[in-house]
Amino acid sequence: ISSGSGYAEVRGGKAELLASLKTIQTYSLLNSISPYAINVTQYLKSLTFLNGGISSLIGKSPTTGFTTRGIQLYLELKKYNTLDVDTIIPVSFLDNAINYIKGNKKPLSGYTSSDRDSTPELISTFFAVQIIKYLEDSGINSYKFDFDGIYDFILNIEQPSFGFADSPGENGDLSYTSMVIILSQILNNDSWINSDVSKFIEDSFSIQDSGFGYKPDASPRVKYTYYGIRALRARSNPLSQSSAIANFISKSRTLDGGFGQFPNAQLAYLSHTYWAISSLNLIGKLNLNNINVNDVLFWLSFLRKDNGTYGNSRLSDPSIISTYRALQVKT
How confident is the model over 130-153, as pLDDT tens digits? Predict the structure, then answer.
């Protein structure tokens, strides 16, 4: 917890919205309540602008992405029966935040990063559409968004290689392509996912190494293997190479029990361990033939600091995001 009322990513750092959200989510994973929930609620209020937008930290301008995260934090805090959020944050908070996001949509196109920008971005469009799904999952179905033109915007950011990028003129990669496919799933419209896009995903898979790279002919990495699996799962494509993929991921495990970026890596990271475990879980291969659970748990205990927090690797300082990742891996 910082002097700015919210949580910082690291001890002694400046309060941030994302760190505050991940902390509250960490407490949720622990079936517990943050002792500073009131402070975080006040902090969220201080990040909220009159136009409904929410910024990443005090002194910054609001953005589409952080407004969606602010909504997530608000709904997480509302789960606390002992905390009356509405006595601190105006009841119009959610309406104002949604209206801010809506205002960042360009006519017959996608969403911009903020009300000051003119060029729509894939990642901002993804955040805007995803929050609708999040609200629906939270039982809030009263908000209607304008999705007209998103189809044309998506086609405009498709690259000659048939992958997708964040905005027109940028290089496409598998993470953005996966994002587009998940968007199509949320919107129940996969008409923009043609055979060339499917081929981009397939060509990003290395038959020799049995992992995915960020684009065709790129070296496979655990991170992009996770995105490749997500893309194929969202497309309901059969994962005929699941055993080979599991073998690729297993080879990325380091001697101390965690997972690195690629096979035979020397240093394990929490982020890559999360992607590895999630990938094995998605393809139904999270079993003792591919991973020794006790080894991973031992590695996590090795990463754990005296105060209970975690760093991303044995060389990293503890952080909120890494601590959240550690609990995700455990659960």
Answer: 898 788 777 887 787 777 888 788
Positive or negative, the CA dihedral 299, 302, 308, 312 is negative
Antiparallel, parallel or unpaired: β 211-212 and 310-311: unpaired
Q: How many CB atoms lie within 10 A of CB 130?
A: 17
pTM above 0.85, yes or no: yes
User: Are residues 113 and 121 in contact, defined by beta-carbon separation less than 8 angstroms?
Assistant: yes
Quick: pLDDT tens for 170-207: 777 898 888 888 888 888 777 767 777 778 888 899 98
At residue 180, what is the residue type? V
Scanning the structure block, which residue is given the tokens 């509405």?
Answer: 86
Tell me phi and psi for residue 205, to 5 degrees: -90, 125
Q: Where do we find the tokens 């809506």?
A: 102
Determine the residue type at 9.
E
Q: 269 forms bridges with which residues in the sheet?
A: 259
